[in-house]
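thought: fold this chain, then report.
action: predict
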Amino acid sequence: MTDVVLPLIGGLVLLIAGGEFLVRGAVNIATRLGVSPLVIGLTLVGFGTSTPELVTSVQAALADAPGIAYGNIVGSNIANILLIVGIAALLAPIAVASSALKRDGLVMVSAAVIFAGLAAVMPMGRVAGALFVAALGIYIWTAFRQERVATGGDHGAVHDKSAALQEVDPALDPGKPVQASLPVSILIAVGGLVLVVLGGGFLVDGAVALARGMGISETVIGLTIVALGTSMPELVTSVVAGLKKQGDVAFGNIVGSNIYNILGIGGFTALIAPGAVPAEIVTFDNLVMVGVSLLLLLVAWTGLRISRWEGAALLAGYAVYVFVIWP
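observation:
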């Protein structure tokens, strides 16, 4: 068992550390090249915490492990809402007042519904992947236009996802002067990319070996252990926002992450390694993802707060979900 657990844990450590270096180097490079801080924040920083999911899902799909590839995406979205929003609400009740966040919540639900619908009737091919990636590009472009005229606290999910990461690591603030030179920044980014690729490989290999060793499906491992591991950056950033009583930021971080997971990671995975989503995910987990996404949208649009007891209910819901799918 040690031969399985060590690559799994080592892969997660390399993924998260490599993602940090990759984003930091990329932000420094873009800042040195004179790219707008708003553009950097909405793209490089905003997508930063999704790097572990992206690399893991692509490598799993290439390794012919679709249960891990798509289980990671769907399981991460479910964990983001039930587990991470639940923990953030326990730390400080979440109230969503921003109209922009409500609109982003609608995008999140729409993406989940379209993904679940497509997966039920056809394999995730390159055409679908290209459409998902194009939709992500349009979404980010719209978010950029929205943020240019945003007033007060009316920020969207992409902005809050970036802000949450900068709260944890102020070095990722594109508005601050860059200390490292351009060659050093490039070296940091390349080194981070190497660590991420290596970490993804170790994580996928360890997850496949764990599934075989325990006699359970790769899909269950992808939906639980892999999804939880790659969601650690979102957990940390949302917990920090919760501790600082920034409920909108914690909420936006999760909504933005879920949109990136489906449109970006799902899209790139289908583009690079097209294939069918496992039947177990299609018939159950996709429906759970859509259901909890609708629940989160309902909370946003009704202006209700997610109180501490409701956070505890979300956590209990995640425990029930894991209990149901674990053999």
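thought: worth noting. DSSP finds 13 helices and two strands in the chain.
final: tokens above.
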